[in-house]
């Protein structure tokens, strides 16, 4: 089977029509049609069928798409491995992370890298699809979800859940740096939705203390949460680094009478053992951990661990 024909097949799938695909990949439409027909003959599968003046995927064609994408990603990985072996350096790494992690600290970390460092491309995914992302082309992942067994991992520390208030808020003016949930719960809270692991951690602490917020607004973008807090619309709870002049307050479990530990989100890096760039991934993970520590963004109670 010719890999170029797989690329052509996926180009038609992504473009929607043979004509649009031919324009996108700069090939004549009749030639592209012949390549698709040859691929069908090689696979002994009918991938497309005519529907009026258009081609539509057959059920077999639709089912074949994930396998084709996986094979193309694996081919790209082989090319990257060969390039690293040939040049002695890893030029590019793809990192899977949630949108909150990308905006909150991964992109800020990337901004501190040098031209001679690996180019880090981020791919946004959910907390619960990290292992799948590693199987589908990502070199490593950063996630608050516990890594699945069998993956190589490195703990980065724990990011505290932080309540942000406007610079002119009474707590900011008083220089308060931490408060228990019982004090925060009487406020209007701007929180991430239940799609976020941090929201589960917060809700669990509220339930254990038999508390609830007086009023809740939901938003899944940490920057917007802080912007709303900066404008005085309420207290914004996120794991993002401070922005817009907001004042950060660490959230303690429990009540004013019996405050508990700071609420926190554990972070891990994970990758498939034996990855061709494993040494480079470890180095990058350590640098991310150091960056978070320098920013005062993590709580490290004991020496971070690595598990191969």
Automatic annotation (TrEMBL):
It comes from Pseudarthrobacter psychrotolerans. The keyword Nuclease does not apply. Belongs to the LysR transcriptional regulatory family. It holds the Pfam family HTH_1. One of its GO terms (molecular function) is transcription cis-regulatory region binding. Residues 1-58 form the HTH lysR-type domain. This is LysR family transcriptional regulator. Keywords: DNA-binding, Transcription, Transcription regulation. CDD domains: PBP2_LTTR_substrate.
């Amino acid at each position: 089977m010719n890999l170029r024909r797989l690329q052509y097949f996926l180009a038609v799938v992504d473009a929607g029509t043979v004509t649009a695909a031919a324009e996108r990949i700069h090939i004549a439409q009749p030639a592209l049609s012949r390549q698709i027909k040859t691929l069908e003959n090689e696979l002994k599968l009918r991938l497309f069928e005519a529907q009026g003046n258009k081609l539509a995927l057959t059920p077999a064609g639709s089912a074949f798409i994930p396998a084709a994408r996986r094979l193309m990603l694996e081919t790209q990985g082989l090319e990257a491995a060969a390039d690293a072996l040939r040049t002695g350096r890893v030029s590019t790494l793809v990192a899977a992370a949630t949108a909150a992690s990308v905006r909150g600290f991964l992109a800020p970390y990337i901004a501190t890298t040098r031209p001679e460092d690996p180019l880090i491309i981020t791919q946004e995914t959910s907390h619960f699809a990290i292992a799948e992302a590693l199987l589908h082309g990502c070199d490593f992942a950063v996630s608050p979800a516990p890594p699945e067994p069998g993956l190589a991992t490195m703990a980065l520390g724990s990011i505290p859940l932080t309540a942000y208030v406007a610079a002119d808020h009474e707590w900011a003016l008083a220089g308060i740096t931490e408060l228990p949930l019982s004090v925060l719960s009487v406020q209007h809270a701007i929180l991430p939705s239940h799609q976020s692991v941090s929201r589960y951690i917060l809700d669990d602490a509220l339930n254990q203390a038999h508390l609830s917020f007086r009023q809740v607004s939901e938003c899944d973008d940490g920057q917007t949460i802080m912007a709303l807090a900066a404008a005085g619309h309420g207290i914004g709870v996120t794991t993002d680094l401070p922005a817009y002049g907001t004042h950060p307050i660490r959230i303690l479990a429990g009540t004013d009478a019996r405050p508990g530990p700071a609420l926190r989100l554990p972070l891990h890096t994970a990758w498939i053992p034996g990855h061709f760039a494993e040494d480079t991934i470890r180095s990058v993970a350590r640098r991310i951990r150091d960056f978070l520590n320098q920013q005062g963004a993590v709580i490290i109670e004991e020496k971070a661990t690595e598990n191969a």
